[in-house]
């Protein structure tokens, strides 16, 4: 399955929102039935203008748990593996831990 299908089904709770930041491919196959059944709202935003300060406030208040977005962690000596995973679209947020 394509990365966005996994994100909509796995990372978006019923009644939640999927936000597409920036652009991706011009056309995609999207799981519209899953979106309807799970009552997911879809939002698009082209730039980060005026979003960053609001996002920081939400994180600061605890309204958004960004730690849940981290799906994979790699030590520095496995950085290439982390980049390959990111390129494949298998993770939501892949972190390279430079202290390990």
Keywords:
100 residues; alpha/beta; two-stranded parallel ribbon; two-stranded parallel sheet; 4 helices; 35% helix; globular
Alpha carbon gyration radius = 15 Å
Shape: globular
Tell me the distance between the termini: 32 Å
Q: How many β-strands, per DSSP?
A: 4
The percent range for strand residues is 15-25%
Count of helical stretches: 4
Mean pLDDT: 82
Main-sheet strand order equals 1-2
Poorly predicted regions: none
Order of helices and strands: HEHEHEHE
Largest sheet geometry: 2 strands, parallel
Helical coverage, percent range? 25-40%
| Structural class by secondary-structure content | alpha/beta
Structural account:
This protein has 100 residues and is an alpha/beta fold. Helices cover 35% and strands 21% of the residues. It contains 4 helices and 4 strands; from the N terminus they run αβαβαβαβ. It has helices spanning 3-11, 32-37, 52-61, 79-88; strands at 17-21, 41-45, 70-75, 93-97. The strands form 2 sheets. Strands 1-2 form a two-stranded parallel ribbon. The longest helix is centred in the middle third of the chain and has 10 residues, at 52-61. The radius of gyration is 15 Å and the shape is globular. The N and C termini lie far apart (32 Å).
């Amino acid at each position: 399955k394509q990365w966005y299908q996994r994100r909509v089904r796995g990372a978006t709770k019923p009644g939640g929102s999927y936000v597409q930041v920036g652009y991706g491919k011009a056309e995609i196959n999207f799981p519209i039935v899953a979106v309807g059944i799970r009552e997911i709202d879809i939002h698009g935003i082209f730039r980060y203008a005026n979003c960053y300060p609001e996002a920081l406030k939400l994180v600061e208040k605890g309204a958004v748990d960004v730690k849940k977005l981290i799906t994979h962690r790699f030590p520095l000596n496995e950085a290439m593996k982390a980049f390959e995973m990111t390129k494949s679209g298998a993770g939501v947020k892949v972190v390279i831990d430079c202290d390990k």
